Fold:
Amino acid sequence: MKDKIIHKATELFFKLGFKSVTMDDIACEMCISKKTIYKFFANKEILIEEGNKVFHEKIQNGIYDIMAKSDNAIQENFLIRKMFVEMFKIADTSPLYQLKKHYPEIHQKVVNQEIQVCSECFRQNIIKGIEQGYYRKDIDVESYIKFYYTLLFSINENTVSEIETQKLEYKALEYHTRAMATQKGIIELETQLLNYIK
Structure:
């Protein structure tokens, strides 16, 4: 039951907003009593935090799965981008923006977790891209990691609309890739841009 509550609550939070969804709304949507929810979660903040942990694990597993299966570093980033679009398609407002505005302490925990995972994924991607000849060998890897996650988190924390967030993230990915790409990488980037639009 606990997992079902987390799943439904997270779905509602993303769709309607963390602030506007109440414990009553979740109970009503699941056709259970509010008492049942409080049996597992002392308050809404704990439910939000638990939901974010579960969602974070889902994202992490999805990213690692794509990294293991992708043909090249540039394709990998576009597949990850598509995964995020699919996961957040029900959200009207950027979840990170909402957390920052209404639940700053939870937001900070989420950001700290995401930075660790993102940094490691970006590092592996850049090293893979250099080895494959898609990215330049003279890249300062740590600086590029910081540039990219700073850009992505800035977009997420300061853009209200999830649709607008996704558009800007797509542009940031193109920008990030062009900054690192060799001629071979540019050709692959153009291919991925065409495939992404389709």
In short: The chain is about 80% helix and 0% strand. Residues 1 and 193 are 42 Å apart (CA to CA). The radius of gyration is 19 Å.
